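Putative GH43/DUF377 family glycosyl hydrolase (Sphingomonas kyeonggiensis), 373 aa
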Amino acid sequence: MAADDDFLIFRPDDVDLSRSPLRNGVDEPTHVLGAFNPGFARLPGGNLLLMVRVAEALRDPVDGDSARAIRWTKQGYVLDRHPVAGIDMDDPRQFALKDRNPRLLGLTSLSWLLPVELSKDASKIVKVHYDKAIQPSAGFLDYGVEDARISLVGGSWWMTVCGVSAERHCTAMYHSVNGLDYKLLGVVLDHQNKDMILFEGKPGGKYMALTRPLGEVYFAYPDDSPWLGGPSINMAQSPDGLHWKPLDTPGIRARKGTSSTQRIGGGSQPVLTPEGWMLIYHGVEKQGAVGVYRSFWALLDKDDPSKILRLEDETPLLEANPALTDPIAHQLYLPTPVVFTTGVADAGDHYIVASGEADLACRITRISKERFL
């Protein structure tokens, strides 16, 4: 793959924190922990949009005997204190309250979304739309708005996000008529679900989405089953994009004998090709606290997407590329390789694929369509 076909397009230092929404309440120095996992869509004029997740953290999260977390309120952002003696901080992205069952977490950063407009071929940044940034605006988002996924359905843009709060860990929906200005429609999945992504079309006349429900308990398959239990990709249908009914049949599951034995989840929005619905998803191999994230792909039946026509879960489509992050290696905080694909756009004879690299920056990769035949 040529260097101009695989590169970082947006990095932490590209964020102007003087224009961050957190300036409404947080006066202490902050830094960008990561500018990554972007929603990806083509705008009406042909340019491309990255909806970048900006994880903004205090430079000094620990103050004296307290760790501090940022929280949104209607009056502005505030800092909550948690006694250091009562928490574990093994993961740089979060801390856990000791002796709590179920486990209770706090974040060392708060995420907001920054629209970054790219040229039609994704080779350069056209404009960073700070005036259209999406920040928490409701109680179910008060610890952050994370991991946007955008799909063009029926002439308008639907964007799911992961809402983080003490109230719930949910999926919220935004909607846009121009791909750039988004309105919050509210909670659509009232449980922890990290990877809800709408299909770019309506199979059978209904909205359809990939989901990945999470929980504290999973059950084992029989020993002779080819499948592994744990987080997997399910599917759901909706008459209006707001009310969702899960399909009864399972979707894409982790398979024994592959490198994705810890969990899998959705990545890009499913797009319709002559062969069926193509989607890129992530698989995680257990290693350390985070795991190794790679991107794979699948092909689903165009009329009944619950039917898997092809599952490329052995040879990765994308893997983390340390050469891309070498120039900003001093900003790395994850010990294991991570690439997290979050969107795809048609570009004629190839696809433009957007990913988060190392939970740090936004990566663009151009992949020939022949790779998917």
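The helical segments are 322-325. The first strand starts at residue 6 and ends at 10. ok done for today
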